[in-house]
Amino acid sequence: MTVTALTPILLLPATLVGASSSFLPAPPDGERSDLRELGATGHLPQSPRLSPQLLDRAADPQRLAEEPALDLPRGILGIPQPVLDAYVRAARSVADTNPRCGVHWSVLAAIGRIESGHARSGSVDVLGTTVRAILGPRLSGGPGIAAIPDTDGGRYDGDPVWDRAVGPMQFIPSTWRKWATDGNGDSAASPHNVHDASLAAARYLCGDGGDLRRPRDLAAAVFRYNHSESYVRTVLIWAAAYAKGVTPTPADLAPEVDDVLAGERMPAEPLALARPPAPAPPPAQPAPSQSPPGPAQPPSPPPASPSPAEPSPGSGVVPPDVPEPSIPELTPPNLTPAPTPPPASTGPGAPDHPGVPPVTSTPPGAAPPETPPGPPGAPPSPTAPPASGPEPTTPPSTSEPPSTSESTTACDPAVLARGEFTTAEPSPGTVLGPGAGDPHAVAPGQLVYVDTAGVLTPCTVPADFHP
């Protein structure tokens, strides 16, 4: 609901001021108005009456759009099918009960477009109730906003202190109680239901006895709905455009909504609204700077391993901090070819797979492979098992890390996307430039070969890789 400001604050009704004056400034005394001055939606009136110029132009959308300039609707005009059905059904119902009125469905569609974007683009359930409540601002007497203390106990708007316009046609609760109608035959009348709200809006427009087939009477009826000439002009322009033809757009109906105001209700206690939010708890003490590298590098005791080993059991601060920075701080660099060949043994391990999710099963196993390939003999790692073969216990431990590092190292998605890989084991001296492989031909988990710092190494396609 668009709220504009041209007049002072209005307080309605006066008997309820005491309920809210303790937490919001009371509007000036002596400023009172009848609810009829606010129309159906609670907008502050922009003008006391329609100008003769607008009444003269009411039948001509082109002239209505001239001064001040308004854009005329163009192109295909779509309305969600269930909402369009509600507009048409409401107009037909009024035509049966009040044939003299002559309200056209296109007028209801124009109002519904302005007030709620056709029930927020047709987001309704099987009965026509909006999936989420469509609420206007609190009518609490702020700048340019009417002051209407609660009249419904929060039944329609979820606010037990101030009223709010509600539903696809943005009725204020007091107006809804007068015009509430069951528009879909479910024995209930709800301002949140597009069928009920559309029929209530049609009845409201016909309530002054005019013949809405006459442009002047139609303009006057829309002005009663919202006391704004710009609003009247916009409704008449869109109604004329819709009347020429619209395209029903599909909209999936949600299951029946149990409580449209779920999550929208406000505290009934006035002071609860004024109470400042509770202060945030003090931040936890910072963890020692050496703790993150500690668990990531078990074989290097000098810098970090002694200190975290002692405080982590006794201190409650270190354990939560260790898992949090350990992975993110190792992964931010996304520069696979950056490391030079000598230190490349540790470089490709962490930066090669900056995305942690694809390597969910390997964080614990990724640390050990970084240590064995430390010496320059990382590529010919298969020769290590025979060297340590004479010892019975050594072969199992030394044979696992190389195979794990090869099978669990995830490829850099950027390298795969450029096609700098091959699916067949390359011969020495092979150059893998962009386009060497087809990114669309590989599947998650597939083994491919990439150029890592001048060395052709195998890696697996990450599970979340999408070229």
Automatic annotation (TrEMBL):
InterPro entries: Lysozyme-like_dom_sf, MltB-like, SLT_2. This is Transglycosylase SLT domain-containing protein. GO terms for biological process: peptidoglycan catabolic process. Coiled coil: none annotated. Residues 164-207 form the Transglycosylase SLT domain. The keyword Membrane does not apply. GO terms for molecular function: peptidoglycan lytic transglycosylase activity. It holds the Pfam family SLT_2. Residues 276-311, 320-345, 354-399 have a biased composition (Pro residues). Residues 1-19 form the signal peptide. Gene3D superfamilies: 1.10.530.10. The keyword Signal applies. Residues 400-410 have a biased composition (Low complexity). Residues 23-51, 272-438 are annotated as: Disordered.
